[in-house]
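For the sake of clarity, the format in which proteins appear in this thesis is described at this point. The record quoted next illustrates the convention:

___
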Amino acid sequence: MRKRVIIISVLAAVLVCAYFAVERLNVPEQEAELPPPRETVAIFNADKNDVSEMTLATPERNYTFYKDGDAWRVRGGAGIRLNDAKIDSLAYDFAGLNADEVVGSDGDLSLYGLDAPLGTPSVKLTDGSEKHFVIGGKTPVGTGYYFKTADDGTVYTVYATKIEGFLAELSAYRDATLAVVDPAKLTEIRITRADADILLRAKTAEEMSDQAAGLNAWRMISPYTRDANSYNLEEQIMKKLTALPISKFIEDNPPSYAKYGLDNPKYTVTLTEEAQTPVRVLLGGTVEDEIYVRLDGENSVYTVKAADFSYKDLAPIDFIDTLVYIQAIDNVDTITLTADGGVYVLKIAHNGEEADYFVNDLPADESAFKRAYQEVIGLFIRGAVTDAAGGEPLYTAVFRFNDGRGDDTVEVVPYKDRYAAVRINGKAEYYVMREQAAAVVEKIKNFSQNPGKQ
């Protein structure tokens, strides 16, 4: 019985202690006192708009920004493009220099690294006055730096985020974009290299309104003259053009560009926007996964990711439409195909928006006719003709149009062992697989014998 009383008493004591502990923790929120915010101490204050020069000096470097109208320049760095927004932010930092804490004055400067400073930045105002500063070592916790003015012994601590801007290399304030191009406004793309001069040009509004011009918005002018491959153009080039970022700033005004392969660039990529000066990028040697570049008219050498210009090595044929010969069916009256001693005439009798279809004067089902038509114009390019192509044609197709154009004669002739060159009006530029050409003849023969639904 006595043990039971003791146990109950202990439990009661525990409950009482728990009650008072909860009461102490349950202090009303409005009664809790927060420490007062730490007040910063002004070291130097000026109007940011009065800042005319800023010098960032360390044992390794020394450079000065100065205001030229509304733009910032770097002294001795003609042609160096700067990021005005970042330099404006630096001017704000100079104009409103506040300390996190006052450490003391007239002490041993070596205790704070101020005897061998990390940096000695300075600022000049439009009235000609100047202020010089000294940056010491980092504080023990690493969140700030010891700091003082050159003309006073008082030592402060200043947040690291501000001080690190005073210690930064020039590259931190440079424009890190090689060029900005709006793909929607591009009118011309040119890739020049030892083995090719590839010129792609956007079609004009008049060209796009011409039904015979096809649906592609771009056309290759050189080395071939035909519609561009819209998908490849978009995926390989356009998606990489919005902004071309610089990876590294290598050298300004080098005595020679030879060591970068830019004395005689391997590639030149020219991008032209409507009503803008063309952007010409000179591409030199590679280093790891980057490539040396220079903008025509500028003297600075940079590197960019080689992947940003991966299209520079594409074959010209990769940029063009893969169909050798294509015509809108609405513009065609007849196709006369001759093969193996047989003649097959595919005829379209247009009547406004309606049409009747025939093969060798026999009425043909519309769907079957259009499938046959797709076979005739559906030859896929496999490569560019580099050798002479001749011999008896595997077949000849003569297209007659209703839009005032003259006839087109398409001859498919043997080329090497497995291919067939396509000669359009006497000129052979591309070849296709010979088996595909043979399949066209076979399918047109079958269609002529059964022009109904197949």
Summary: Residues 2-25 form the longest helix (24 residues). Residues 1-32 have pLDDT under 50 and may be disordered. The chain is about 20% helix and 40% strand. The chain has three domains: 41-173, 177-319, 329-449.
